[in-house]
């Protein structure tokens, strides 16, 4: 429900005190089953049980006299007089009441037959019979009681009814075996024409259950009778009937219902919802349901398209489960005086019952209710099935707003009177200056907020001059924490005040700027919202004026906001377009691979220095302006640990390194930063180091992208190459074959396999000394200096050169490396020995070993021949077992001692299976 409802439950105008709000039907009567409003006042005389509460007392007295005059021709007991009531809504203001169970008695005695034909009565504004008014003297019995149910003998006319200036119409759903029909009487100057819907032999459809007559439905100037048939083909339907030949009502359009058993068409209303001059159609289906969506009842809206309707509705409104939403509908006029007709929807089974008020607009009916009125809100009166019947569209209290009468089955009728609607006209909300310069602000004044209001009544009553009070709230920077401003005399950025009209026209408030404001790029947003300060309402008997209880127009916005810009050096548009650019490099690493710096890894690497250069230099006439809140965010990998930055204090260390460049970082400004990292996580498996640099600013710059500072890690070691086998020998024998006779690889001879070993260079060994076990200084002599390398043609394999003298060695050792040309082998073959040298050093004697980190000198001065030094000894073949590494000698290449060919192995006679296994030597 709206906090300020436009409709207010108040007591109707009655000639005597009534014990409760609304009015009470006599005990046992069907009070409130159907209600109606008429133009002047509501009279509630007393009457016996079964009378029409509110309108039927005088009518009931007339029927009492008829009962005495014709006791054997009609039965009026339990005829439900007042099942339908209607007001003519214009002078002279006639009233219509119907009794659909009015019964005619044919014949008498044992053969008496009864026909429930129904009957309607028309009376004047004072509920009295005027014999001079032919509207009132006409019998209004359209059904023929002398027929049976196949015709109109059980038509139950009056189930629905209404009338206008010259037309009266009735619905008779029991005619033609409950097919139903409608009757329309049109009065002209001297004639009375009656029309009816013919018998189409479509029984049990209940045509005439509801009915409305209006012009501008199918044609501008011709009337159309719209009637509901809630049991048409079990889904329900709405028929649009037009005048035809021979006093018949012809069907022009049929709108089918959406669901079996929904009772589509049991309630309907016509109203010009979008103010286009055509009547739109609203249809209720109170038993429509959707189990999964928990929907109980629906209202279907069909918009008139210049005299035509679509088969599908333009809008469907639904209510909660078991609510009976759409059980009653009423066109209630323009209750808020916005120029569009409004609709009331009853949901009598939703708790104690509710009434939904829907406003409309140029697009049609709105899909959300503006107000929901519950029977539980109506003071001490306990009401059930509130909203069972509705009637509206008339101004009952003379305040220019139409009111609504709501009926129920609790012997209560509630008159809801519309309250005046206030339009806020001149709503001034300004701040001066519009651009604030922090340098011009003082501790007592910086910005001035001005607020002005004026109003009028939506109905346009010039005499309405009630004093109303608006309560408003000003809030600055509501989406920022903390805000950048506060109101004078308070530490808060929120201010609440009252505005009394028409006494007060304008109010002002001072707004102060806080110190150390960082964000000067985004404007300060100042919002204002207001509401109507309502007077306390007290429940009282009898009607009273509602002028002191207005409501605000809910279609107007009750919120405003304005923006206060900061004075910036950013051009005439006050929008800053920056041009931040960044360059970075690691300081000490000069090697590059494809433009990427390379770090030569070693144990001595402890720190890395990253140099960052940032500029804001214009590259076009429209950029390079101040960069507000310029920040540099440095994302560091786990292998690096930030330790310091130059200049000191420019950055803060956390999960990332955050550097504040300036607020603002001005035009043509430059900044240089050097961040030092500790290389705590660079390991042997580290291949690269990536540092991401991300510039950001609150100014406008669309090309800001993260920049990658990348460093490749190169881990290089010095290695040595050596032959794994210390002694390799091979024997050649057999038939000598020329080169031209060699067809296969194995024809060349036996393969030779060499194993080479690559290893990391070790620490440089000490030089070899002979004749002395200790050096002159008591320690090991240092490694001899590296001699110049000989060219490849003068490799030191076949010559000896003098080595540099060393003061730490008593006598250097001559060493020569030569490949022997050959040696005598076994008979019939030649022997090739691989070059080798075995050095046996006694305890305490240093021996230089060939190593890439400390290579042998190209030549050593000979002190004595190797054979005389008694240091190098040739290994005897019989003392060292030969080693072969995965060399396969095929069977046909095996040689026997003495150079003979291998003997052919013969199969033993006692061996049943022979297999020559492969062997590896």
UniProtKB/TrEMBL annotation:
<feature type="repeat" description="FG-GAP">
    <location>
        <begin position="250"/>
        <end position="311"/>
    </location>
</feature>
<dbReference type="InterPro" id="IPR013517">
    <property type="entry name" value="FG-GAP"/>
</dbReference>
<dbReference type="GO" id="GO:0008305">
    <property type="term" value="C:integrin complex"/>
</dbReference>
<dbReference type="GO" id="GO:0007160">
    <property type="term" value="P:cell-matrix adhesion"/>
</dbReference>
<dbReference type="Pfam" id="PF01839">
    <property type="entry name" value="FG-GAP"/>
</dbReference>
<dbReference type="InterPro" id="IPR048285">
    <property type="entry name" value="Integrin_alpha_Ig-like_2"/>
</dbReference>
<dbReference type="GO" id="GO:0005178">
    <property type="term" value="F:integrin binding"/>
</dbReference>
<feature type="domain" description="Integrin alpha second immunoglobulin-like">
    <location>
        <begin position="570"/>
        <end position="711"/>
    </location>
</feature>
<dbReference type="InterPro" id="IPR013649">
    <property type="entry name" value="Integrin_alpha_Ig-like_1"/>
</dbReference>
<dbReference type="GO" id="GO:0050900">
    <property type="term" value="P:leukocyte migration"/>
</dbReference>
<keyword id="KW-0675">Receptor</keyword>
<keyword id="KW-0401">Integrin</keyword>
<feature type="compositionally biased region" description="Pro residues">
    <location>
        <begin position="781"/>
        <end position="794"/>
    </location>
</feature>
<keyword id="KW-1133">Transmembrane helix</keyword>
<dbReference type="InterPro" id="IPR028994">
    <property type="entry name" value="Integrin_alpha_N"/>
</dbReference>
<dbReference type="GO" id="GO:0009897">
    <property type="term" value="C:external side of plasma membrane"/>
</dbReference>
<keyword id="KW-0472">Membrane</keyword>
<feature type="compositionally biased region" description="Low complexity">
    <location>
        <begin position="795"/>
        <end position="818"/>
    </location>
</feature>
<protein>
    <submittedName>
        <fullName>Integrin subunit alpha 3</fullName>
    </submittedName>
</protein>
<dbReference type="GO" id="GO:0007229">
    <property type="term" value="P:integrin-mediated signaling pathway"/>
</dbReference>
<dbReference type="InterPro" id="IPR013519">
    <property type="entry name" value="Int_alpha_beta-p"/>
</dbReference>
<feature type="domain" description="Integrin alpha first immunoglubulin-like">
    <location>
        <begin position="418"/>
        <end position="569"/>
    </location>
</feature>
<comment type="similarity">
    <text>Belongs to the integrin alpha chain family.</text>
</comment>
<keyword id="KW-0732">Signal</keyword>
<dbReference type="InterPro" id="IPR000413">
    <property type="entry name" value="Integrin_alpha"/>
</dbReference>
<dbReference type="GO" id="GO:0098609">
    <property type="term" value="P:cell-cell adhesion"/>
</dbReference>
<dbReference type="Pfam" id="PF08441">
    <property type="entry name" value="Integrin_A_Ig_1"/>
</dbReference>
<keyword id="KW-0130">Cell adhesion</keyword>
<keyword id="KW-0325">Glycoprotein</keyword>
<dbReference type="InterPro" id="IPR032695">
    <property type="entry name" value="Integrin_dom_sf"/>
</dbReference>
<dbReference type="Pfam" id="PF20805">
    <property type="entry name" value="Integrin_A_Ig_2"/>
</dbReference>
<feature type="repeat" description="FG-GAP">
    <location>
        <begin position="371"/>
        <end position="433"/>
    </location>
</feature>
<feature type="repeat" description="FG-GAP">
    <location>
        <begin position="312"/>
        <end position="367"/>
    </location>
</feature>
<keyword id="KW-0677">Repeat</keyword>
<feature type="region of interest" description="Disordered">
    <location>
        <begin position="765"/>
        <end position="828"/>
    </location>
</feature>
<keyword id="KW-0812">Transmembrane</keyword>
<dbReference type="GO" id="GO:0033627">
    <property type="term" value="P:cell adhesion mediated by integrin"/>
</dbReference>
């Amino acid at each position: 429900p709206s906090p300020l409802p436009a409709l207010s439950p108040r007591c109707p105008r009655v000639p005597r005190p009534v014990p409760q709000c609304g009015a009470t039907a006599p005990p046992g009567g069907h009070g409130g089953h159907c209600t109606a409003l008429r133009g002047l006042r509501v009279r509630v005389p007393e009457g016996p049980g079964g009378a029409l509460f509110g309108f039927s007392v005088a009518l009931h007295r007339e029927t009492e006299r008829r009962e005495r005059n014709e006791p054997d021709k009609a039965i009026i007991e339990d005829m439900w007089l007042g099942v339908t009531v209607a007001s003519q809504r214009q002078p002279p203001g006639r009233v219509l009441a119907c009794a659909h169970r009015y019964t005619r008695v044919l014949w008498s005695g044992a053969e008496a037959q009864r026909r429930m034909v129904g009957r309607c009565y028309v009376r004047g504004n004072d509920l009295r019979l005027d014999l001079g008014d032919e509207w009132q003297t006409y019998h209004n019995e359209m059904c023929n009681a002398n027929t049976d149910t196949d015709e109109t003998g059980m038509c139950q006319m009056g189930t629905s009814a209404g009338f206008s200036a010259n037309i009266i119409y009735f619905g008779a759903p029991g005619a033609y075996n409950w097919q139903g029909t409608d009757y329309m009487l049109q009065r002209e100057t001297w004639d009375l024409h009656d029309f009816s819907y013919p018998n189409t032999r479509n029984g049990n459809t209940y045509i005439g259950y509801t009915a409305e007559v209006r012009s501008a439905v199918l044609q501008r100037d011709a009337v159309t009778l719209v009637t509901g048939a809630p049991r048409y083909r079990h889904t329900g339907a709405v028929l649009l009937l037009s005048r035809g030949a021979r006093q018949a009502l012809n069907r022009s359009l049929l709108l089918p219902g959406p669901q079996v058993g929904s009772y589509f068409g049991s309630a309907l209303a016509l109203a010009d919802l979008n103010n286009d001059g055509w009547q739109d159609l609203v249809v209720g289906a109170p038993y429509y349901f959707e189990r999964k969506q928990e929907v109980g009842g629906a209202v279907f809206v069909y918009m008139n398209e210049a005299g035509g309707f679509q088969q599908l509705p333009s809008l469907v409104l639904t209510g909660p489960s078991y609510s009976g939403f759409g059980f009653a509908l009423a066109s209630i006029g323009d209750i808020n005086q916005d120029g569009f007709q409004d609709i009331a929807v009853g949901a009598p089974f939703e708790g104690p019952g509710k009434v939904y008020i829907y406003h409309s607009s140029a697009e049609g009916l709105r899909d959300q209710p503006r107000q929901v009125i519950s029977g539980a809100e109506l003071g001490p009166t306990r009401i059930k099935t509130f909203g069972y019947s509705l009637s509206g569209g008339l101004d009952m209290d003379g305040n220019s707003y139409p009111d609504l009468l709501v009926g129920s089955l609790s012997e209560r009728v509630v008159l809801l009177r519309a309250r005046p609607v206030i339009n806020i006209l001149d709503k001034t909300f300004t701040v001066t200056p519009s651009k604030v310069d922090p340098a011009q602000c003082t501790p007592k004044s910086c910005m001035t907020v001005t607020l002005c209001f004026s109003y009028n009544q939506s109905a346009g009553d010039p005499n309405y001059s009630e004093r109303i009070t608006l309560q408003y709230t000003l809030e600055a920077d509501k989406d920022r924490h903390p805000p950048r401003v506060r109101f004078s005399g308070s530490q808060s950025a929120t201010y609440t005040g009252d505005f009394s009209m028409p006494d007060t026209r304008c109010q002002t408030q001072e707004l102060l700027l806080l110190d150390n404001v960082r964000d000067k790029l985004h404007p300060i947003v100042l919002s204002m919202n207001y509401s109507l300060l309502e007077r306390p309402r007290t429940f009282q008997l009898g009607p009273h004026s509602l002028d002191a209880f207005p409501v605000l127009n809910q279609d107007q916005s009750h919120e405003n906001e304005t923006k206060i810009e900061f004075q910036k050096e950013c051009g005439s548009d006050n929008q800053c377009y920056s041009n931040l650019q960044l360059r970075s490099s690691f300081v000490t690493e000069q090697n590059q691979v494809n433009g990427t710096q390379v770090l030569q890894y070693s144990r001595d690497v402890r720190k890395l220095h990253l140099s960052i250069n940032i500029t804001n230099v214009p590259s076009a006439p429209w950029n390079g302006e101040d960069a507000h809140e310029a920040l540099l965010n440095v994302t560091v990998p786990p292998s690096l640990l930030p330790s310091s930055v130059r200049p000191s204090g420019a950055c803060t260390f956390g999960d990332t390194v955050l550097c504040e460049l300036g607020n603002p970082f001005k035009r043509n400004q430059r900044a240089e930063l050097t961040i030092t990292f500790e290389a705590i996580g660079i390991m042997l498996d580290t291949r690269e180091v990536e540092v991401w640099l991300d510039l950001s600013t609150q100014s406008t710059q669309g090309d800001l992208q993260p920049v990658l500072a990348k460093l490749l890690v190169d881990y290089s070691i010095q290695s040595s190459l050596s032959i794994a086998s210390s002694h390799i020998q091979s024997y050649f024998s057999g038939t000598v074959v020329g080169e031209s006779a060699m067809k296969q690889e194995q024809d060349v001879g036996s393969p030779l396999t060499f194993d080479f070993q690559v290893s990391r260079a070790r620490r440089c060994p000490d030089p070899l000394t002979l004749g002395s076990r200790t050096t002159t200084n008591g320690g090991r002599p240092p490694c001899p200096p590296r001699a110049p390398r000989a060219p490849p043609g003068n490799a030191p394999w076949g010559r000896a050169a003098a080595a540099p003298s060393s003061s730490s060695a008593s006598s250097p050792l001559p060493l020569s490396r030569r490949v022997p040309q050959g040696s005598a082998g076994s008979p019939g073959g030649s022997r090739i020995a691989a070059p080798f040298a075995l050095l046996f050093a006694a305890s305490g004697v240093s021996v230089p070993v060939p190593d890439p980190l400390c290579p042998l000198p190209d030549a050593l001065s000979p002190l004595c021949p190797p054979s005389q030094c008694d240091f190098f000894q040739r290994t005897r073949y019989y003392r060292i077992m030969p080693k072969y590494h995965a060399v396969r000698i095929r069977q046909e290449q095996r040689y026997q001692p003495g150079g003979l060919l291998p003997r052919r192995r013969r199969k033993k006679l006692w061996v049943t299976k022979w297999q020559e296994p492969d062997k590896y030597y």
